[in-house]
Design brief:
Strand content: 35-45%
Helix content: under 10%
Distance between the termini: 79 Å
Number of helices: 1
Length: 191
């Protein structure tokens, strides 16, 4: 081992470091071995994939999320493009960034349950049929009269009671017949 170190030491001082063979260490050539030239590639070059190549400047990271990934209905960004993969409020589902289910807005056309307290709710129980539930179970039954973007309109013919489930104002509105309407509950959740 001691002899090997002496030989390597002697070679390194006897070799002209600036004299380099023409078959290694230059652009697009193989790197030189330690017995041919040190360093293995000329200044400004680096070893890459078994060749001496020009050093590339690191690519700057984009200032913000790229416009082509991570947004709603787009593919998620790769880790080299942006982290997190999907924009805030979105999640990845089957290779696409989408709105989370709980983040999607419920409106008068899509609602099927409206909660107004921990135990009270209006629930769609069939086509055009709704029930009001309390702590003890179903209290009253209603027929759906109509819907719009913000509300569902219900009627209980046995009591001549009208209910509006107003999702825009988050109120349950009550009236008897054509009488005055009044807010009776605050809506705390709808789905």
């Amino acid at each position: 081992m001691k002899h090997l170190l002496v030989i390597l030491f002697a070679i390194s001082f006897s070799t002209n470091l600036y004299a380099r063979p023409g078959h290694c260490g230059h652009q697009n050539q193989r790197p030189c071995s330690v017995f041919e030239a040190v360093p293995s590639c000329l200044s400004g070059l680096t070893e890459s994939r078994g060749r001496c190549l020009a050093r590339q400047a690191p690519r700057p990271k984009p200032a913000g999320r790229p416009h082509y990934c991570g947004h709603n209905q787009q593919r998620p960004c790769n880790v080299t493009e942006f982290v997190p993969a999907c924009h805030k409020g979105l999640h990845e589902a089957l290779g696409v960034c989408k709105q989370a289910q709980q983040a999607q807005k419920v409106n008068g056309y899509s609602v099927s349950v409206v909660k107004f307290s921990n135990t009270g709710k209006f629930k769609r129980i069939g086509k055009g049929k709704w029930a009001e539930y309390g702590a003890q179970g179903p209290r009253f039954r209603f027929t759906e009269k109509s819907r719009d973007e913000w509300s569902v309109y219900l009627h209980d013919a046995s009591r001549n009671v009208n209910i509006q489930l107003d999702l825009h104002r988050k109120k349950v509105v009550y009236s008897v017949g054509n009488g005055a309407r009044s807010d009776i509950y605050n809506i705390i959740n709808a789905k």
